[in-house]
Amino acid sequence: MKNGIKLFVLMVCCIVSSLVQGQSSKTNRLTKKEKKQGWVLLFDGKTSAGWMKANGQLFPEKGWQISNGSLTVMENQKGGDIVTEDEYADFELSVDFLLSKTANSGIKYFFTNYSTGGKLGMEYQVMDDAGATDNKLANHLCGSLYDIFPPNETIKKTNAIGQWNTAKIISKGKHVQHWLNGIKILEFERGGDAYIAAVGKSKYKTSPLFGTVEKGRILLQEHGHEVSFRNIKIRKL
Questions:
Q1: Which residues contact 76 (CB under 8 A, 6 or more apart)?
Q2: What is the residue extent of each domain of the chain?
């Protein structure tokens, strides 16, 4: 009887291991179709290649962890924001993110240095809407263009804490879209009348007008909370 139980446990462990390995083999990899479409990985799942601190220094030795195919910003470790070495203009960006409870972070794009305003980027908010403290304003919720435009909450579907979500940002010319888990939740024109009005009411007072630069880096934000990222990929449009 004991041998039978041991055999059963061993079989279960083998099945679980196989499933984990199967999932891992699909993570941080591009399909033949994606490669043909021009997608490139920004994170190889193993190293910090292609990333550096937002201040231009080398990738932080503390505060960020690479493990099990994920790039994780650790809670209260002050690792700082990280950015891509390359800049991007027209692009489609896809990022999987995993939130911890009460987490607040962001994926920024067109991150650059403004003549007035300093180093800033347009932020796709990544947040636990229910548990994070910064959840009082609609344009601060997950998927928003932070402090400027709110996502469409009537159609937005955010997965539960502990489950991965997929953010997608498409920017071509001045037209931008925010997607979450396959649903388009926000669409706007950089520099349009509605955009200028919304920026005017936000915390962003820059020259040139915030978010209207031609190109910039991709940034993953450190905000004191644990958040993991994987399958970070981009293609130029």
A1: 224
A2: 1-30, 31-236
Reply yes or no on domain 31-236 having CATH 3.40.630.30: no
pLDDT band at residue 14 under the 50/70/90 scheme: very low
**Strand extents, DSSP E, the chain:** 40-41, 51-53, 64-67, 70-73, 82-84, 91-99, 104-114, 118-127, 165-172, 175-180, 183-189, 217-220, 227-236
Query: Which residues are CB-neighbours of 94 under 8 A, at least 6 positions away?
Result: 166, 167, 168, 231, 232, 233, 234
| Alpha helices, H only, the chain | 2-25, 32-37, 193-200
For the chain, the residue count is: 237
Q: How large is the average pLDDT for residues 29-52?
A: 98
For residue 27, count CB atoms less than 10 angstroms from its CB and return exposed for 0-12, middle for 13-18, buried for 19 or more: middle
d(CA 210, CA 62): 31
- Per-residue DSSP letter, 138: G
